[in-house]
Design goal:
The complex is a heterodimer of chains A (about 270) and B (about 270). With about 270 residues, chain A is α/β, with parallel strands linked by helices. Chain A is about 35% helix and about 25% strand. Chain A has 7 helices and 10 strands. A 6-stranded mixed β-sheet of chain A has the order 6-7-8-3-9-10, with helices on both faces. A 4-stranded antiparallel β-sheet of chain A has the order 2-1-4-5. In chain A, helix 6 packs across helix 7. The radius of gyration of chain A is 18 Å and the shape is globular. With about 270 residues, chain B is mainly alpha-helical. Chain B has 2 domains: about 40 residues; about 220 residues, MetI-like fold, CATH 1.10.3720.10. Chain B is built from 11 helices and no strands. In chain B, helix 3 runs antiparallel to helix 8 and helix 6 packs antiparallel against helix 8. The radius of gyration of chain B is 24 Å and the shape is globular. The chains are: A alpha/beta (about 270), B mainly alpha (about 270).
Chain lengths: ~270, ~270
């Protein structure tokens, strides 16, 4: 399971798996006041094994794009495909991490991490061994028997990440996974997710409203406008890998975040 | 520092426990005194000492056991049947729109009917034995469970449902892993209500017509102007009520452990 090419995660072992293609995506929500278009005309290509950040202000429909990819939301127009197959509902080649880790409080940490395996009817011995590996990977090897209510917010989110990886999905969809954490835990988790990504080689779609988080983590940054969400610009992130927190002090980093902030100013999303 | 709170709280409860026991004793003493001082006839209000004497006499003559057995049997069997059927129907209504549309209007209109009023009919249909009592108890226990099961199942958090949906969960898996545990707290609240109602149901059914039972015994004692005997039965009923409620509360805390006080050390306290 563990891939040796830790510093070249872009080379996914199976290029057919994990590529994402979105064309002309539009999503509507029914509200009491009428139809609300959350996302409009979004095109996006993600190479297998890439780390893509979708960046936008609150309410720009970035979570909606993720819900479409997760098979939870039907588009009003356009389509999305993962690994060459159109997304028509939940599927086994994706793992999802929400902002709220949404662990089940009546299950232990271990049972929560094992849940996708149980739901999908995978061989038990296999997923249980993998759950132990993943808990060790996220630094919670000693907490398998704890209940979520006994853990801190950061620990719970790590459990959520381990659960998202259990069934070895080609794509990991993360919806502001560290948005609810305090600044210090968040920085720690940013480094953690880069380490996990390097160790597993997944395609990661990372939704965030934090400019610096997007710049620190991703290969590419997809910038969305306020509602209805449209792609304003896609930025190739030239920062070298492996990334470190120190890079946030470099002029290169400052230029990129400055540019991103400028885009939002033009779009009228920030004061 | 957090360890000080539970211990302090327990001591506080101990102090109030002593206070409330003192109040009970003072009340009994005042009662005993008042009955003697104002020469209240025993067949109107007997003194506590007379009630105790009546109770001892009853035990010596072994009159309580068959009645106690009959009442408890009706309670337990009726409670088991009524609550189980209530949970099953509640689950069917919450899960299937068709069932909801067909059945729910009747449930709502029947709920406002005092079920107790049907007890005389059951005596006519099922006779003076166990059956009519069981039917009365089951009917009275049924409705709170239907309502609470529906409320509970619909209270499952959308995020948790979505998360488990992304794992390709079937409808049954969503029910079993998310909805039912989410409903457990509500279902137990219904079970708490029903346990009190089951005692009322058994008593009323015995008043209306039964060959045995504590309700029956109250009527016999009343017929003999044996008011101390009636009070003695009331004490037994109070004990049954408290024991049954306590038992359900105990099981509630054990089963729905994640909603009650957090057990064990909190991991974030350890770090």
């Amino acid at each position: 399971m563990a891939r040796a090419d830790a510093h070249a995660p872009q080379q996914s072992p199976d290029p057919a798996r994990g590529g994402i293609r979105i064309r002309g995506l539009a999503v509507d929500y029914q509200t009491p006041q009428g139809v609300l278009r959350a996302v409009d005309g979004v095109d996006l290509d993600v190479a297998p094994g890439a780390f893509v950040a979708i960046l936008g202000p609150s309410g720009c429909g970035k979570s909606t794009i993720l819900r479409v990819l997760a098979g939870l939301q039907r588009p009003a127009a356009g389509d999305a495909a993962i690994g060459g197959a159109a997304v028509v509902g939940p599927r086994r080649d994706i793992g999802v991490v929400f902002q709220d880790p949404t662990l089940l409080p009546w299950k232990t940490v271990f049972q929560n991490v094992c849940l996708p395996g149980r739901i999908m009817g995978l061989p038990r011995a296999g997923y249980e061994a993998r759950a132990r590996e993943l808990l060790a990977l996220v630094g919670l090897g000693d907490f398998a028997g704890y209940y979520p209510g006994q853990l801190s917010g950061g620990m719970r989110q790590r459990v959520g990440i381990a659960r998202g990886l259990l069934h070895d999905p080609a794509v990991l969809l993360m919806d502001e996974p560290f948005g609810a954490l305090d600044a210090m835990t968040r920085e720690q988790m940013n480094m953690e997710i880069l380490r996990i990504w390097a160790a597993t080689g997944k395609t990661v779609v990372f939704i965030t409203h934090s400019i610096s988080e997007a710049a620190l983590l991703s290969d590419r940054i997809v910038v969305l406008s306020p509602r209805p969400g449209r792609v304003i610009e896609i930025i190739e992130n030239a920062l070298a890998r492996p990334r470190t927190m120190d890079m946030m002090a470099t002029p290169e980093f400052g230029r990129m975040t400055g540019h991103l902030r400028g885009l939002f100013n033009v779009a009228g999303a920030l004061e | 520092m957090s360890a000080a709170t539970p211990a302090g709280r327990r001591r506080w409860i101990g102090a109030t426990g002593i206070a409330s026991l003192a109040i009970a004793l003072a009340f009994l003493a005042a009662w005993e005194f008042a009955v003697g001082a104002f020469a209240v006839p025993s067949y109107i209000v007997p003194a506590p000492s007379r009630i105790l004497a009546a109770f001892q006499r009853g035990i010596e003559r072994q009159i309580y056991w068959p009645h106690l057995q009959a009442t408890i049997e009706a309670m337990v069997v009726g409670y088991a049947i009524g609550t189980s059927l209530g949970i099953v129907l509640g689950a069917l209504i919450a899960e299937f729109r068709t069932v909801e549309r067909i059945v729910y209007p009747y449930i709502v209109s029947l709920q406002s009917l005092p079920k107790i009023a049907l007890a005389p009919l059951f005596v006519m249909w099922f006779g003076y034995g166990l059956t009519s009592k069981v039917v009365t108890v089951a009917l009275i226990c049924f409705f709170p469970l239907v309502v609470n099961t529906i409320t509970g199942l619909l209270s499952a958090q959308r995020d948790r449902l979505d998360m488990v949906r992304t794992m390709t969960a079937t409808r049954w898996q969503l029910f079993w892993h998310v909805k039912l545990p989410s409903a457990a707290g509500h279902i137990f609240a219904g079970l708490q209500v029903a346990v009190v109602l089951s005692l009322i149901g058994a008593l009323v059914a015995e008043f209306v017509g039964a060959d045995r039972g504590l309700g029956n015994l109250i009527q016999i004692s009343q017929g003999n102007m044996d008011t101390p005997g009636v009070f003695a039965v009331l004490v037994i009923l109070a004990v049954i009520g408290m024991a049954a409620t306590g038992a359900v509360r105990f099981v509630h805390r054990r089963v729905v452990f994640w909603e009650s006080h957090r057990a064990g050390p909190h991991a974030s306290d350890l770090s």
